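Question (not urgent): is this output format expected?
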Amino acid sequence: MVGPSIHAVVILGTVLVPLAAVGVGFAWSLQRLPQVLGFLAATLGMGSFCLFLLMPGAPIAEWVFPSIGIIIAGLFVKNRRAAWALVWVLVIAAGGLCANAFMLRTAESGYTSFPASLYEQLHQAHLANVANQIRRQYPPDHVLPPGPVHEIAPPVEIPDYEPTTFSSEWHTRLTRLYRATKTPGVIWYPGGPVEEGAKNLQWKTSEHTSGG
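Got this back:
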Protein backbone atom coordinates (compact mmCIF):
# COMPACT_ATOMS: atom_id res chain seq x y z
CA MET A 1 0.00 0.00 0.00
CA VAL A 2 1.26 3.47 -0.88
CA GLY A 3 0.23 6.60 0.98
CA PRO A 4 -2.57 8.89 -0.16
CA SER A 5 -0.22 11.61 -1.44
CA ILE A 6 1.61 9.26 -3.81
CA HIS A 7 -1.73 7.69 -4.66
CA ALA A 8 -3.08 11.11 -5.69
CA VAL A 9 0.01 11.89 -7.78
CA VAL A 10 -0.41 8.61 -9.68
CA ILE A 11 -4.08 9.44 -10.34
CA LEU A 12 -3.10 12.79 -11.82
CA GLY A 13 -0.35 11.10 -13.82
CA THR A 14 -2.85 8.87 -15.60
CA VAL A 15 -4.11 11.98 -17.40
CA LEU A 16 -0.99 14.15 -17.47
CA VAL A 17 1.27 11.50 -19.02
CA PRO A 18 -1.10 10.83 -21.98
CA LEU A 19 -1.42 14.60 -22.51
CA ALA A 20 2.37 14.89 -22.56
CA ALA A 21 2.54 12.04 -25.08
CA VAL A 22 0.02 13.84 -27.29
CA GLY A 23 2.18 16.94 -27.07
CA VAL A 24 5.12 14.97 -28.44
CA GLY A 25 3.15 13.57 -31.38
CA PHE A 26 -0.51 14.30 -32.09
CA ALA A 27 -2.66 12.47 -34.62
CA TRP A 28 -6.41 11.76 -34.58
CA SER A 29 -7.08 8.10 -35.38
CA LEU A 30 -10.72 7.05 -35.53
CA GLN A 31 -9.66 3.55 -36.64
CA ARG A 32 -8.46 2.87 -33.11
CA LEU A 33 -11.87 3.60 -31.60
CA PRO A 34 -13.10 -0.04 -31.34
CA GLN A 35 -9.97 -1.12 -29.45
CA VAL A 36 -10.09 1.98 -27.26
CA LEU A 37 -13.68 1.21 -26.34
CA GLY A 38 -12.61 -2.29 -25.31
CA PHE A 39 -9.95 -0.95 -22.95
CA LEU A 40 -12.37 1.68 -21.73
CA ALA A 41 -14.91 -1.02 -20.91
CA ALA A 42 -12.28 -2.70 -18.71
CA THR A 43 -11.72 0.41 -16.60
CA LEU A 44 -15.44 1.14 -16.39
CA GLY A 45 -15.94 -2.44 -15.24
CA MET A 46 -13.45 -1.80 -12.44
CA GLY A 47 -15.38 1.32 -11.54
CA SER A 48 -18.68 -0.53 -11.39
CA PHE A 49 -17.07 -3.17 -9.17
CA CYS A 50 -15.76 -0.45 -6.83
CA LEU A 51 -19.16 1.23 -6.62
CA PHE A 52 -20.81 -2.10 -5.90
CA LEU A 53 -18.41 -3.05 -3.10
CA LEU A 54 -17.98 0.24 -1.29
CA MET A 55 -20.95 2.58 -1.33
CA PRO A 56 -21.02 5.48 -0.57
CA GLY A 57 -17.27 5.81 -0.06
CA ALA A 58 -16.20 4.08 -3.28
CA PRO A 59 -13.08 5.06 -5.24
CA ILE A 60 -14.01 7.22 -8.24
CA ALA A 61 -11.02 9.19 -9.54
CA GLU A 62 -9.00 5.95 -9.49
CA TRP A 63 -10.83 4.65 -12.57
CA VAL A 64 -12.29 7.83 -14.09
CA PHE A 65 -8.90 9.48 -14.65
CA PRO A 66 -7.31 6.40 -16.26
CA SER A 67 -10.41 6.11 -18.48
CA ILE A 68 -9.86 9.67 -19.69
CA GLY A 69 -6.18 8.89 -20.19
CA ILE A 70 -7.06 5.82 -22.27
CA ILE A 71 -9.22 7.91 -24.60
CA ILE A 72 -6.47 10.52 -24.98
CA ALA A 73 -3.69 8.00 -25.53
CA GLY A 74 -5.65 5.62 -27.74
CA LEU A 75 -7.10 8.22 -30.08
CA PHE A 76 -4.61 11.07 -30.13
CA VAL A 77 -1.05 9.74 -29.61
CA LYS A 78 0.57 9.64 -33.04
CA ASN A 79 2.89 6.67 -32.57
CA ARG A 80 0.71 3.56 -32.63
CA ARG A 81 3.03 1.38 -30.54
CA ALA A 82 3.48 4.09 -27.94
CA ALA A 83 -0.29 4.62 -27.83
CA TRP A 84 -1.11 0.98 -27.14
CA ALA A 85 1.74 0.60 -24.66
CA LEU A 86 0.42 3.60 -22.77
CA VAL A 87 -3.15 2.29 -22.88
CA TRP A 88 -2.05 -1.02 -21.37
CA VAL A 89 -0.14 0.80 -18.65
CA LEU A 90 -3.24 2.88 -17.86
CA VAL A 91 -5.45 -0.18 -17.54
CA ILE A 92 -2.96 -1.78 -15.16
CA ALA A 93 -2.63 1.51 -13.28
CA ALA A 94 -6.41 1.69 -12.87
CA GLY A 95 -6.45 -1.78 -11.34
CA GLY A 96 -3.59 -0.92 -9.00
CA LEU A 97 -5.17 2.37 -7.98
CA CYS A 98 -8.51 0.75 -7.21
CA ALA A 99 -6.83 -1.95 -5.12
CA ASN A 100 -4.74 0.61 -3.26
CA ALA A 101 -7.81 2.78 -2.72
CA PHE A 102 -9.51 -0.06 -0.88
CA MET A 103 -6.44 -0.58 1.30
CA LEU A 104 -6.37 3.15 2.09
CA ARG A 105 -9.95 2.88 3.30
CA THR A 106 -9.19 0.31 6.01
CA ALA A 107 -9.15 1.28 9.68
CA GLU A 108 -5.41 0.60 9.88
CA SER A 109 -4.61 3.29 7.30
CA GLY A 110 -5.97 6.17 9.37
CA TYR A 111 -8.11 7.41 6.46
CA THR A 112 -11.73 7.07 5.46
CA SER A 113 -14.00 8.19 2.64
CA PHE A 114 -17.28 7.43 4.36
CA PRO A 115 -19.32 10.57 5.15
CA ALA A 116 -18.89 12.05 8.60
CA SER A 117 -22.68 11.86 8.95
CA LEU A 118 -22.46 8.05 9.15
CA TYR A 119 -20.02 8.28 12.04
CA GLU A 120 -22.26 10.87 13.71
CA GLN A 121 -25.19 8.47 13.46
CA LEU A 122 -23.07 5.75 15.06
CA HIS A 123 -21.98 8.20 17.76
CA GLN A 124 -25.58 9.12 18.58
CA ALA A 125 -26.67 5.47 18.54
CA HIS A 126 -24.09 4.62 21.23
CA LEU A 127 -25.21 7.55 23.39
CA ALA A 128 -28.84 6.49 22.97
CA ASN A 129 -27.94 2.93 23.99
CA VAL A 130 -26.23 4.12 27.17
CA ALA A 131 -29.14 6.48 27.93
CA ASN A 132 -31.61 3.59 27.65
CA GLN A 133 -29.50 1.48 30.00
CA ILE A 134 -29.48 4.28 32.58
CA ARG A 135 -33.26 4.57 32.38
CA ARG A 136 -33.60 0.83 32.91
CA GLN A 137 -31.25 0.84 35.91
CA TYR A 138 -32.66 3.85 37.77
CA PRO A 139 -36.10 5.42 38.32
CA PRO A 140 -36.83 8.69 36.45
CA ASP A 141 -36.49 10.86 39.59
CA HIS A 142 -33.25 9.27 40.74
CA VAL A 143 -30.52 11.92 40.92
CA LEU A 144 -27.03 11.12 39.67
CA PRO A 145 -24.05 13.46 40.08
CA PRO A 146 -22.21 14.80 37.04
CA GLY A 147 -19.39 12.57 35.91
CA PRO A 148 -18.32 9.71 33.67
CA VAL A 149 -21.13 7.17 33.33
CA HIS A 150 -18.82 4.24 34.03
CA GLU A 151 -18.03 5.77 37.45
CA ILE A 152 -21.41 7.11 38.59
CA ALA A 153 -23.48 4.26 37.11
CA PRO A 154 -21.34 1.07 37.23
CA PRO A 155 -24.16 -1.27 36.15
CA VAL A 156 -24.30 0.45 32.76
CA GLU A 157 -22.31 -1.26 30.01
CA ILE A 158 -20.19 1.27 28.12
CA PRO A 159 -19.67 0.51 24.39
CA ASP A 160 -16.15 -0.06 23.10
CA TYR A 161 -16.25 3.03 20.91
CA GLU A 162 -14.34 6.27 20.37
CA PRO A 163 -15.66 9.26 18.38
CA THR A 164 -13.83 10.09 15.17
CA THR A 165 -12.77 13.52 13.94
CA PHE A 166 -11.98 14.26 10.29
CA SER A 167 -9.49 16.54 8.57
CA SER A 168 -8.97 17.30 4.89
CA GLU A 169 -5.58 17.07 3.19
CA TRP A 170 -4.41 18.48 -0.14
CA HIS A 171 -5.53 15.36 -2.03
CA THR A 172 -8.96 14.99 -0.39
CA ARG A 173 -10.96 16.52 -3.27
CA LEU A 174 -9.32 14.04 -5.61
CA THR A 175 -9.10 10.90 -3.49
CA ARG A 176 -12.13 11.58 -1.26
CA LEU A 177 -9.97 10.44 1.65
CA TYR A 178 -10.10 12.21 5.01
CA ARG A 179 -7.69 11.63 7.84
CA ALA A 180 -9.70 9.96 10.60
CA THR A 181 -8.54 10.46 14.18
CA LYS A 182 -10.14 8.63 17.09
CA THR A 183 -10.51 10.66 20.26
CA PRO A 184 -10.27 8.73 23.55
CA GLY A 185 -12.63 9.91 26.27
CA VAL A 186 -15.66 9.05 28.37
CA ILE A 187 -19.42 9.30 28.11
CA TRP A 188 -20.32 12.13 30.47
CA TYR A 189 -23.51 12.41 32.53
CA PRO A 190 -24.45 16.09 33.15
CA GLY A 191 -25.98 15.43 36.58
CA GLY A 192 -29.52 15.63 37.86
CA PRO A 193 -32.59 13.38 37.60
CA VAL A 194 -32.28 10.45 35.23
CA GLU A 195 -35.36 11.59 33.28
CA GLU A 196 -33.49 14.71 32.10
CA GLY A 197 -29.85 13.74 32.47
CA ALA A 198 -30.10 10.71 30.19
CA LYS A 199 -31.21 13.01 27.37
CA ASN A 200 -28.03 15.07 27.54
CA LEU A 201 -25.22 12.55 27.56
CA GLN A 202 -22.13 13.61 25.67
CA TRP A 203 -18.68 12.36 24.84
CA LYS A 204 -15.90 14.22 26.61
CA THR A 205 -12.18 13.91 26.09
CA SER A 206 -10.02 13.45 29.17
CA GLU A 207 -8.84 17.08 29.25
CA HIS A 208 -12.45 18.28 29.45
CA THR A 209 -13.63 16.03 32.25
CA SER A 210 -11.81 17.48 35.25
CA GLY A 211 -14.04 20.53 35.48
CA GLY A 212 -17.34 18.71 34.80
